[in-house]
Amino acid sequence: MGLILIIGTDLAPLFRxxxxxxxxxxxxxxxxxxxxxxxxxxxxxxxxxxxxxxxxHQPTTVQLN
Length: 65
Description:
The protein has one domain. It is built from three helices and no strands. With 65 residues, it is mainly alpha-helical. It is globular and about 30 Å long. The relative contact order is 0.23. It has helices spanning 2-21, 36-39, 42-51.
């Protein structure tokens, strides 16, 4: 279960950015968006970790007040 939470947390900025690109709005002060289902996808996450250093794209970060 711990690995699922770690993976879900790692993917949270990507989910939020994807939601914003799709036109979703989030309430003020809302942090990141994630799900346990996404965290349970260990193999795609591992592949993403291998490819990540070769990609130029970095997710945007949200500044909390």
